[in-house]
Amino acid sequence: MRSVGIQADDLTGACDAGAPFAAHGLETVVLLPDRESSSSAAAVTVLDTESRHLEPTAARARVRGVAARLAAGRPRLLYKKFDSTLRGAVAAEVAGMLEGAGIARVLVAPAFPAQGRTVVDGIVHAGGRPADDTPIARDSTFPRTGASVLALFGAAGPHPVATVPLATVRRGPVAVLARLSRFASAFVADAETDADLDALAPAGDGTGILVAGSAGLAAGLARRLGRESMGRDRGANPPRLLGPLLVVAGSAHPVTRAQVVRLRASGIDARWGLWPDDADGVEDPARRARTAQRLAVAARARVDAARPGTLLLAGGETAVSVCRILEATGFRLDGEVEPGLARGALLDGPFAGLAIVTKAGGFGDPDTLVRVWEACR
């Protein structure tokens, strides 16, 4: 029986949700969309549905089917992973998860403090500013309702919607559970710190409530389960990354672009870096897909010729394209390089065991890629 079943709308999100569980000693496997029905005996199974860019109706239907398969395994915990800044068909996917799993209520907590994403008064903040007052709002998948989680679920999600304000969260798990006993279908929780997320984590364990959020709440759940299982915390002493490092950075997010600029200035050999020449066309799904495929083809050629020790994949579409062209069905995770950067290895295929690091486009600071590169030297 699976301990945890997780659904995520893109591959880097699937990895950053699963990595904390792996870091706490729980065997964790991430499977690609076309392998969602594959069997897994792992304690934690994460299914990527590649649904972030789908229309809400299609995303809801896809997630509904995956949720039913996860629920059929009778996991102790079901988790709906979504973007910490609400990109994608978040409300529709949460509804699909509830329908597929046969669950009536959900706790929604998008905060990811380790990446500067917090929720106060139901508003998502990034770097201390409301997310709709940042470049994130220019993303085509950012909701029209803005940074308000309450407005998002009020317009398109399960009803009625209630809040779990920060004052309640700070009173601890007992107060949170008491709040969740009120009549509502969706509860939107504030959180500014990891301690806040730890107070929310018990809500998903044996309560009949679905928990949904970013990698932040996933890490809180992992801390809770890791303590209970006495799992070995591999995050404190992870295995060394092997060089050379091949960086494949297909995301056009400004954060990743700044990281690539810093990495190039640090003197990385051009043979070990693959990225688009410009960020034009990021809003064009067809061009975005072509860019990811072009980088994947180049990555396969580089892997065949030079056999890197580690692949770093930045951006969800890039990660999926590279994984597929390397003929793997997914990853086995072993922890995090740092919060938001999952590490593991290809699960199968001709390059099974090749070390992988994944990074969402918007995660990290300007020196993130440089730090990983230096760790592999």
- CATH topology description of the largest domain: Rossmann fold
Task: Give, in order, the helices and strands.
Answer: EHEEHEHEEEEHEHHEHEHEHEHEHEEEH
Amino-to-carboxy terminus distance:
40 Å
Number of domains: 2
Q: How would you classify the quaternary structure?
A: single chain
General form:
globular
- Beta strands, count: 17
Please give the count of helices.
12
Low-confidence stretches: none
Highest-level CATH class of the largest domain: Alpha Beta
Describe the structure.
This protein is an alpha/beta fold. Helix content is 36%, strand content 21%. The chain folds into 2 domains: 4-232, Putative sugar-binding, N-terminal domain (Rossmann fold), CATH 3.40.50; 238-375, Four-carbon acid sugar kinase, nucleotide binding domain (Molybdenum Cofactor Biosythetic Enzyme, Chain A). The protein has 12 helices and 17 strands. Helix 7 (194-200) packs across helix 8 (215-229) and helix 10 (285-306) packs across helix 11. The longest helix has 22 residues, at 285-306. The mean pLDDT is 91.
